[in-house]
TrEMBL record:
Domain DUF7691: 1-206
Protein name (Swiss-Prot/TrEMBL): DUF7691 domain-containing protein
InterPro entries for the chain: DUF7691
């Protein structure tokens, strides 16, 4: 079974602040913007909704209002998708063809490639194992993680330091062509973020 990533360039703190903002005007804008997507998700998750999971619209409202959330952990996925809609609305979708689709331990392989270039401040695998900001409940799918601005800056500094090291003592580059391309895509994400004060990366794994 394959997985995918959706990656967004955005003001991480501003996106987090939307959770629990109780901004009804924002909710109405998002409900209109994502009307077709909300309906498709309700159709796709119809069986779970019949078992008590919130509709996509109800989940979006709960995330914006900071609750109430279902106590059933099996329903938490709807809130993860709702937070992704907030990030989609407030950010820009980034190219991610190196990660969509992917299989097995590909994210770990790319992290090894980053590490080979001296980059340890960020991890693409964090998009798989993290969760949305509190108080949004955690769900395994979608996974969610973020690279805040300070970690992005640190990662690029690590990369620059490794490039400046002597060839004999510097980190080895990843050897797999696919991993090289994926690492380059990650570097492109980080460079775009660093060019915008306060911006970072939020990623979702499905």
């Amino acid at each position: 079974m394959s997985s995918s990533l959706s990656v967004y360039l955005l003001d991480v703190a501003a996106a987090r602040a939307l959770v629990g903002s109780r901004d009804d005007q924002l909710f109405e804008v998002l409900r209109a913007r994502f009307a077709d997507s909300l309906a498709r998700d309700d159709d796709y998750h119809g069986d779970e909704i019949e078992k008590g999971a919130p509709t996509a619209e109800a989940a979006l409202r709960a995330v914006i209002h900071g609750g109430p959330f279902s106590e059933d952990r099996n329903h938490a996925f709807q809130y993860g998708y709702a937070y992704e809609r907030l990030c989609s609305f407030s950010g820009a979708f980034l190219p991610n063809d190196c990660f969509t689709p992917h299989r097995g331990d590909w994210l770990s392989v790319v992290d090894q490639g980053l590490g080979a270039l001296g980059i340890t401040a960020v991890s693409v695998e964090s998009f798989s194992h993290g969760g949305p900001p509190d108080p949004v409940p955690y769900s395994f799918t979608p996974g969610c993680g973020e690279w805040p601005p300070d970690r992005v800056a640190q990662a690029l500094e690590q990369y620059g330091a490794a490039r400046g090291a002597d060839a004999g003592s510097g980190p080895a580059s990843p050897r797999e062509p696919e991993a090289v391309r994926a690492v380059e895509q990650c570097l492109d994400w980080m460079r775009r973020a660093k060019a915008l004060p306060g911006f970072g990366i939020v990623g979702f794994r499905y």
